[in-house]
Design goal:
280 residues, alpha/beta, Rossmann fold, 2 domains, 11 helices
Length: 280
């Protein structure tokens, strides 16, 4: 595991969260700091690490700090590839302003460029917190079964209680609009058939993963992919949302014409775990 760290107010909390998760899920934690020219950050970081290494869970973890220079996101990604990191943690703002959104924060750049799983922390805590309520995508995609499987393993390892698998269905013209009561009845009937079909698919996926030691639920929702599951996560008070990794590297135009993952990245409803999968 690895975490990108900077001199932010949440520095200690970010390191503590990473150490806690590493103690459960990983063998070693790499702390990656990209220095600005003529910076005195090493001295500050040493003071923070010395403090945490004596009175926090960091003392129980095998960790190594790496000081880098250059572009922040590219440096972090390079170190992660060199160290063969499976999961990268990064702090992220729940909501970005318009300027930062288009320029791209470090966390968003990491998501768009990486080829490994990433956990974005929106509200890290110095004291242990739990993901008691997790939402994971159930969208009809080749990557989804692997994402669900890994999410169940993650949830069980950290002691979660509930996992909801949410399938987003894009409404078509036959189910979206109704001019009168007869049309409304027809639309509702078609939506019901689609919902039943998707629910059966999710149940078949879950049947292959029998034995999970937590409460599993499924939900089919109609709406715009990304936006819908983000809204559901927020209203259901989920602490963690889990999504598939993007199929391609996202660029500037993906941010201009917002879709899927970009809806989530622009306004995070909770912590966000993006699971990288080679399934196609």
């Amino acid at each position: 595991m690895a975490i990108g760290i900077g001199l932010s107010p949440s520095l200690e909390a970010n390191i503590t969260e990473a150490a806690r998760l590493c103690s459960i899920l990983g063998d070693k934690l790499f702390l990656i700091h990209v220095e600005a020219p003529n910076s005195h950050s090493r001295k500050v970081l040493k003071q923070v690490l010395d403090k945490l290494a004596t009175n926090s869970i960091l003392a129980e973890v095998d960790y190594e700090i790496s000081y880098e220079s250059g572009d922040i996101s590219e440096s972090i990604i390079r170190v992660c590839k060199e160290k063969k990191v499976d999961l990268l943690l990064a702090g992220a703002l729940p909501r970005e302003g318009l300027l930062r959104y288009y320029m791209g924060s470090v966390a968003r750049q990491l998501v768009r460029k990486s080829s490994f799983s990433i956990l974005l922390l929106t509200n890290p805590k110095l004291f242990p917190k739990t993901y008691s309520n997790i939402v994971v995508t159930g969208i009809n995609h080749p990557k989804t079964p692997d994402t669900i499987k890994k999410t169940i393993e993650f949830a069980e390892a950290i002691g979660s209680r509930k996992l909801t698998i949410v399938d987003e269905v894009v409404p078509d013209k036959n189910t979206k609009r109704a001019a009168d009561d007869e049309e409304l009845e027809r639309c509702n009937r078609l939506r019901g058939m689609i919902e039943q079909k998707e629910a059966q698919r999710l149940n078949l996926t879950l049947a292959e993963m029998a034995g999970a030691n937590l409460e599993l639920d499924t939900k089919v929702i109609f709406g715009k992919p990304g936006y819908s599951i983000g809204h559901f996560s927020q209203t259901s008070r989920a602490e963690l949302l889990v999504l598939n990794s993007p199929d391609t590297i996202l660029g500037f135009m993906d941010r201009v014409f917002t879709h899927d993952l970009e809806y989530i990245l622009s306004e995070l409803p909770s912590d966000l775990l993006i699971i990288h999968s080679h399934a196609q």
